[in-house]
């Protein structure tokens, strides 16, 4: 998943499928993010996987809050991805 200041991207890179989750007001849409991760976890691609790559694209013009990265990691664990790499 890729966390940007105004959206989150969740996808399956091996088949080049990505889903955009835009912000809901001034906050990330954490509900949609968590449900999307749970959908991925139940798919055949991730049933036996516990890892997830989490990346943030933060710039001076469009910073990503550190707390948003931590929250994304917490939700990933809750969705069934306790093993992850932060890039």
User: What's the total helix number?
Assistant: 2
Spatial sequence of strands, sheet with the most strands: 3-2-1-4-5
In angstroms, what separates the terminal alpha carbons?
Answer: 10 Å
Beta content comes to 25-35%
> Radius of gyration over alpha carbons?
12 Å
The counted number of beta strands is 5
SSE order: EEEHEHE
Low-confidence stretches: none
Report the structural category: alpha/beta
Described by the principal axes of the CA atoms, the overall outline is globular
Main sheet summary: 5 strands, mixed
Mean pLDDT, as a whole number? 90
Helical residues, percent: 25-40%
As an assembly, this protein is single chain
Verbal overview:
With 87 residues, this protein is an alpha/beta fold. It is 30% helix and 30% strand. The protein contains 2 helices and 5 strands; from the N terminus they run βββαβαβ. The protein has a 5-stranded mixed β-sheet with strand order 3-2-1-4-5, covered by helices on one side. β2 (7-12) and β3 form a beta hairpin. The longest helix is centred in the middle third of the chain and has 13 residues, at 30-42.
SSE map:
Layout: E1 2-4, E2 7-12, E3 17-22, H1 30-42, E4 51-57, H2 66-78, E5 83-86
Parallel strand pairs: 1-4, 4-5
Antiparallel strand pairs: 1-2, 2-3
Quick summary of this structure?
Helix content is 30%, strand content 30%.
Features of the shown structure:
87 residues, alpha/beta, five-stranded mixed sheet
